[in-house]
Amino acid sequence: MNTSLEPDRRIEAFLEDGPVELPDRAYDAVRSQIDSTRQRVVIGPWRTPDMNLFSKLPIVLAAVVVAAVVGIGFLPLASDPTGVPAASSSPSPPPDPFASQGPLDVGTYRAELDGVPFTFDVPAEGWESGDFWVMKGDEEQPEEAYVVFWSTGFDNVYADPCAHTPLDPAPEASAAGIAKAISKIPGTDLVTGPWSVTVGDRPAQHVVFTVREDIGCEPNEFYLWYDDETGGPPGGYRYADSLGQTMRTWIVELDDHIFWVDSQTAAGADAVLSQEIQQIVESLQFE
After folding, report:
1. What does the pLDDT average to over 250-274?
2. CATH number belonging to domain 107-286
3. Three-class DSSP category at 39
4. What is the pTM assigned to this prediction?
């Protein structure tokens, strides 16, 4: 009796009933199981009439177990029930509020002014954008509120806003120096500041003031400050829109220059509007 061929013949005999083929490692595992089963079950050189039936049972069980284990090893870790791989999605970049001027939805926006990229949130409906500002108004006061972004820096305030005479000498070119000069513009009343604050994780100065009723000229002729890079006086200047309006300024220190944010609200504006302006500024982030 050739003991090495006996397991092979028994496996072949078992598989003759169907077109089944086992992988090599499964085949070897079954052979090993048969050998160990034969040593445990077959005692002596004899066989009983029922020996063939029961000796085939361990072979069947061994083949099923090995095939199951081998099959599991080839299963994919995860799959979509439809068989279509899930597409990877990436969030869309925030829209540029100044690319197409008009009404803005509530959400986050990204802009870049003079090489300074930044993002901010519009917290409520009713805001719309212009060249480098966002505005909210109503039918009675169409220019009720503005938030204006300046990235070209700041150079000076006006010592005489109606005559458009710059302050001489110009203030120190720092956030603190600029804030101090703003707080003393003739024809204005200081409400609060200058205060050291943080805007977009950057150090900043904050000043709030109002424009008097008796300034001596029309509001749009009442110049507040200017920037030389956009033309200097009279170009690149900021003026008042209405008597009694409130001006809020944030002078932010970036790595190499000043980033400027100012806002205005008309006299008698709803307090909710001031809260929305504060939310816009607090959401500001620099990249």
Report:
1. 90
2. 3.40.1000.10
3. helix
4. 0.66
